[in-house]
Design brief:
The protein has 318 residues and is an alpha/beta fold. It has twelve helices and 16 strands. The protein has helices spanning 14-24, 42-46, 58-67, 81-86, 88-109, 142-161, 187-197, 216-228, 249-259, 271-279, 287-293, 301-316, and strands at residues 4-7, 30-34, 50-52, 72-75, 112-114, 117-118, 129-131, 165-166, 168-170, 172-174, 201-203, 211-215, 240-241, 245-247, 265-267, 283-284. Strands 3-2-1-4-5-8 form a six-stranded parallel sheet, sandwiched between helices. A three-stranded parallel sheet has the order 6-9-13. A three-stranded mixed sheet has the order 10-12-14. The structure holds serine (SER).
């Protein structure tokens, strides 16, 4: 990995992954691909090259790959789960037509490709606890349908054309940098903002609803380590279960209260997000990632909470 194109570089994952890649691969071109409605700003804009790359425009992708001699593409363009339920055609267009463009360009120009999958690739028929790497998926959301289809399409391009596709199934990602937009796990980010601002948190997810979550530094490391992994050890490609913590709203609330005792929360359950959350696993089994490329998370709920509160206090000047 030397010259890297990040498609969706200004989004929740891309904004941080681009900066981490620029820090770690300083000799290469780390190109921030963006759509005109979401251009890079600040340090993201200043620290390296950026180009308009709309994933639905194959020619644009190919031109940027040629211009910077790109060898690896991080395909981070997607609609999150709740938004995708309201715009299913657009979710498919970006998630699958867009992925097809990335894979075709990569086949021609010999790029490796990372396209994240998600806990959302599973549905209610999957085992809920210790959800295995290889099991029935059958998602019932458009987000999940695009994620499973993306996994299959990526594996197909690896088997049929030798395109080096690899990826992980991300849990809900928690970060103090760029907020997510329209996901089901977003509450676990929003709750920290409310706590640090001294506001009561109105939780859209019901107590007792468990989902896998992960602190962004672990997620970024996973995205890089899987692309750097020794391919001869990989029995799987798209996509590896990864996990670090699983909690319900009361558990994260209690943890934050250890550090901010006056913090309060009430429930106003959002039926759309709740139905999505209930169709997803409680906790994934990530043994294959641990065995095949030495995946290991560094943050548990306590370590993440301490860091989130400290960083958000500095960011929000609280
Ligand atoms: N964070 C995503 C969502 O909630 C799941 O991968 O949509």
């Amino acid at each position: 990995m030397k010259n890297v194109l990040i498609i969706g570089s200004t989004g929740q994952i891309g904004s941080e992954l681009t900066m981490k890649l620029r820090a770690e691969y300083a000799e290469g071109n780390i190109v921030a691909g963006y759509i005109p409605s979401a251009p890079p700003t600040g340090v993201l804009a200043e620290s390296g090259p950026s180009e308009v790359v709309d994933i639905t425009n194959a020619k644009q992708i190919a031109e940027v790959v040629d211009k910077y001699h790109i060898d690896t593409i991080y395909n981070l363009a997607a609609l999150l789960s709740a938004v995708a339920e309201n715009k299913p055609q657009l979710a498919w267009h970006i998630g699958i037509d867009g992925l097809m463009n990335v894979l075709e360009v990569s086949r021609e120009k010999k790029c490796a490709v990372f396209t994240p999958s998600s806990i959302g690739s599973f549905g209610p028929n999957a085992p809920k606890d210790g959800t295995p790497q290889d099991t029935i998926q059958q998602p019932r959301t458009m987000y999940g349908v695009t994620k499973v289809s993306g996994e299959l399409l990526s594996n197909y391009y690896a088997l049929k054309f030798g395109v080096d596709t690899r990826s992980v199934r991300f849990p809900g990602l928690i970060s103090y940098v760029t907020p997510p937009g329209g996901g089901t796990t977003d509450y676990a980010v929003d709750i920290y903002y409310s706590a640090v601002k001294g506001e009561k948190f109105v939780c859209p997810i019901a107590p007792g609803t468990f989902m896998d979550m992960m602190y962004m530094p672990d997620a970024l490391r996973a995205a890089i380590e899987i692309m750097e992994a020794n391919p001869t050890r990989l029995r799987h490609r798209n996509s590896f279960n990864i996990a670090s913590m699983s909690f319900d709203p009361n558990i994260i609330y209690a943890k934050i209260k250890e550090y901010i005792p006056e913090f309060e929360m009430e429930f106003q359950v959002d039926p759309l997000r709740q139905a999505i959350a209930e169709s997803w696993p409680n906790k994934l089994d990530d043994t294959c990632a641990r065995v095949e490329w030495d995946w290991k998370p560094q943050y548990d709920l306590d370590a993440m909470t301490r860091d989130m509160i400290e960083k958000l206090r500095a960011k929000l000047k609280k």
